[in-house]
Amino acid sequence: MLPVYICEDDASVLAVQKEYLEKQILVEGYDMEIVLCSGHPEKIIEAVRKNPRRGVYFLDVELKGEPMDGFALGQEIRKLDSRGFLVYVTAFSDLAFETFRYHLEALDYIVKGDPRRLQDGLKHCLEIITERVHKEKGEEREYFSLKVLDVVKHVPMDEIMFFETTGRTHRLELHAKNDRIDFIGSMGELEETLGDKFLRIHRAYLVNVGQIAELDLKHREIRMKNGETCMFSRNMKSKLLSL
Amino acid sequence: MSFFEVACGNMVSVGMDAVFFSCASILLFCGMPRKGRRHDAAIMGLLALYVFLLSLIGAIFYEFGLFAWEHNGGEIIIEYIQIVGILLILRAAYGKSYGTCLAAAVFLELLRQFGWYLADIFTPNKFYHLKILEERMEYLFQEWVMTPCCFLLVLLFLYKMKVGEALWRWEEYGQNKIFLFFMSLCPILSQIFQEWVERSEKDVGYNPAAAIVFLLVLYIIFLYVGQKEMQRKRIEEQTVSLRQQMAYIQNLEELQKEARRFRHDFKNMMSGMYLQAEEGNLEAVQGYIQEMTEDFDVQVGSRIRIMNQLANIRVTEVKGLFLEKMKMMQEADVHCELEVLYPFEKTKLRTTDLCRVLGILLDNAVEEVRGEDGGKIHVMISSRDGYTTFRVKNTLHSAVDFHKLGTSGYSTKGKDRGIGLVNYKGILAKYDKVLPITTIQDGYFIQELKIQEA
Questions:
Q1: B338 neighbors B382 (Cβ within 8 angstroms)
Q2: What is the ipTM of this complex?
Q3: What is the dihedral of CA B344, B329, B321, A148, to 10 degrees?
Q4: Chosen domain end from B276, B311, B346
Q5: Is A114 on the interface with B (CB under 8 A)?
């Protein structure tokens, strides 16, 4: 059951949203419930803090006259609910939304000028959310979460090829099927956290065992499934052969 | 030699010195003092007085054996008298501050010594019997031709080195009490230096002065060449910056023109709509409104939107860069979106590096999307909370060998390409807490650059 929160400072728009969402939830039989409608962001944060679980949030971007704007509210909510669905409602049809999507992992935005457009947007979002939840139940993919400065990146564990040191202290590179990420971390810690699926074959390489394609004993390197090669140290030779 | 002969001899050389000083100070101060004929006469008078007094004092010193003092004490005192004399004359002639006049005086005195030294090199080291005609001619030649020639050489050198400019610059920006103090000690210091060199030559058997002089010369050459380079680079950068600013202004002007055009059309449409409304033709009115909004967006709206975002880029060079690139994209018919939600004011990357890096990413994106159906580029700049993130996202239309990206020679654009991303990595390697991230997601190729400012 997903709790739904609405934060909108314009009372009439708030009423329209509440009414329509209630209707949709009923009609489509979504497993959601409207928990709080308020024009004050602090009330929303308080409510989430009391009951932290994954939820759906429809937030006004502008929030005139309030101490924080939609973006800041989104940040606070994300701290408490990292997997919730953030949907933004705005009066401007040309909202610079990538920034919201990037920093807050917001789902989408809806334009509130025209009531019909607003309703269509709400309907569309509910559909996407339900689809997502469904898809997640189906797939049991493990993700590796990586903090890069101020954002968190998620990479599917089975796509990670290896981690490499770059010669600068604490600078590591993640090589995955569709990602290459430079970040700050320690090989030792990674080794511990990742456990058995990863092998430290060399001082500079922490390799995903499941992604090894072939072993080249002559040049003392292994080739990964994406074609990249990693060197390994002599003492790992036996361990690698035993795999 | 009698006192009179010494004094006359002195007057000759001091007179030559005075002429040299005048010419050199004209070069140094970029011109003659033009304060009127009376002023000129006063200066001539002062010069004459200087020549006379100095010759006299010199002769007196010689007479009383002051020149035989230890450590060339007598000569040092004469030098100081000379410096003070020149200082006063310069002050009277040009009216500059005491500091400037002191520096100029010391400089001129050193030049004078150098001039005489040059002349000495060309003179054979022998004693002249002035009674013998040939020898007298030779002596006179040395005295009246050789020496002035050497002085002329020095003056020519000054002219070439543009010392006047250097002095003016020093006057404006570099006046320094410590420097002046050091300069005023020059005669004493040079004596000390000389003795030290002589002693070490006796003790150690070689002359370190040569090495020191070479070092100094090398250093000066380095400074000069370096400065020239720096100036050239600065001018280049300024030209680029200017060109970018011009592009920005041009864009704004075009936007204004289009807005004006739209306003004109808008008025026409409004009157048409009014008529329809009068007749009660709601559908037609709705149609008009729809058309107008669309037209606005196409003609003016999107440009306003982009200019709004650009306005949030507060670093002029980056703004200019984006303008250039967006113009290029418009011409190549590439759909591009820019998002700068928060004002981007500065970053710890050097502006030149930042522009190069962004340029590389944008060029790559454009090359990939150019000519492709449905190609899109989206650029995001997010500067907040002490972190700056640049993100260039473009639709992907060719197969990319992901792990080969950034290696020298690899490119989707054909042979002999593939330097861009190598340079990109090279530039970023200079900085700490600057992280590049490459991702392929949902058919988009995304290049991110994250910078921790603190």
A1: no
A2: 0.83
A3: 40
A4: B311
A5: no
How near does any CA of chain B get to the CA of A181, in Å? Answer: 4
pLDDT, one tens digit for every residue, chain A (243 residues)? 889 999 988 888 888 889 998 898 888 888 888 888 988 888 889 988 888 888 999 999 888 888 888 888 998 998 888 888 999 998 877 777 888 888 888 988 888 877 888 888 888 998 998 888 888 877 777 888 888 888 888 888 888 888 988 878 888 999 988 888 988 888 888 888 888 888 888 888 888 888 888 888 888 888 888 888 888 887 777 777 776
Q: Is-contact B25 B112, C-beta < 8 A?
A: no
- Interface with A, mutate which of B344, B450, B452 (most A CBs under 10 A): B450
Query: How far off is chain B from A52, nearest CA to CA, in Å?
Result: 25
Asked whether residue B79 is assigned to any structural domain, the reply reads yes
Flag whether residue A181 sits within 8 Å of chain B, measured between CB atoms.
yes
pLDDT of B362 higher than 70? yes
Give the C-alpha separation, B199 to B208, whole Å: 10
- Residue of chain B nearest A176, judged by CA positions: B403
Burial class (CB in 10 A: 0-12, 13-18, 19+), B18: buried
Which residues of chain B have a CB within 8 Å of the CB of A181? Answer: 435, 437-439
**Cβ pairs bridging A and B (under 8 Å):** 73
CA–CA distance, A109 with A152 (Å, rounded to integer): 22
Q: Tell me whether residue B211 is in a domain.
A: no
Nearest alpha carbon to residue B357 among B311, B425, B404: B425
Residues B123 and B76 in one domain: yes
Q: What is the pTM of this model?
A: 0.63
Measured in degrees and rounded to the nearest 5, phi and psi for residue B202 equal -65, -45
| Beta carbons of B435 and A177 less than 8 Å apart | no
In this structure, the answer to whether residues B201 and B231 fall within a common structural domain is no
CA distance B241 to B72: 59
Q: Do B441 and A178 touch (CB under 8 A)?
A: yes
Q: How far is B403 from chain A (nearest CA, A)?
A: 7
| DSSP 8-state assignment for residue B74 | H
CA distances from B229 to A214, A224, B169, B224, B263 (A): 53, 48, 18, 9, 51
Answer whether A180 touches B (CB < 8 Å). Answer: yes
Examine the fold and report which residue of A92, A107, A138 is the final residue of a domain before the chain moves on: A138
- Chain B hits for A182, CB-CB cut-off 8 Å, are 435-437
Domain of residue A109: give its range: 2-138
Nearest alpha carbon to residue B41 among B93, B96, B85: B93
The single-letter DSSP state of residue B124 is: -
CATH of the domain at A20: 3.40.50.2300
Indicate the residue of A96, A181, A184 with minimum beta-carbon distance to B309: A96
The answer to whether A150 faces chain B, any CB pair under 8 Å, is yes
Same domain, A133 and A233: no
Query: Burial, A120: exposed, middle or buried (Cβ in 10 Å; 0-12, 13-18, 19+)?
Result: middle
Tell me, yes or no, whether A98 and A208 share the same domain.
no
Last residue in a domain, options A75, A103, A138:
A138
Interface of A with B in 197-226 (CB under 8 A): 226
Residue of B nearest to A151 (CA): B450
Q: For residue B443, list chain A residues with Cβ-Cβ distance below 8 A.
A: none
For residue A187, give the CATH number of its domain.
2.40.50.1020
For B253-407, strand residue ranges (E) read: 335-339, 376-384, 387-395
How open is the CA angle B168-B169-B171, to the nearest 5 degrees?
65
Domains held by chain A: number: 2
| Non-local CB neighbours of B280 within 8 Å, separated by 6+ positions | none
Same domain, A126 and A158: no
Distance from CA of B449 to the nearest CA of A (A): 10
Q: What are the structure tokens assigned to B225, written together?
A: 């060449």
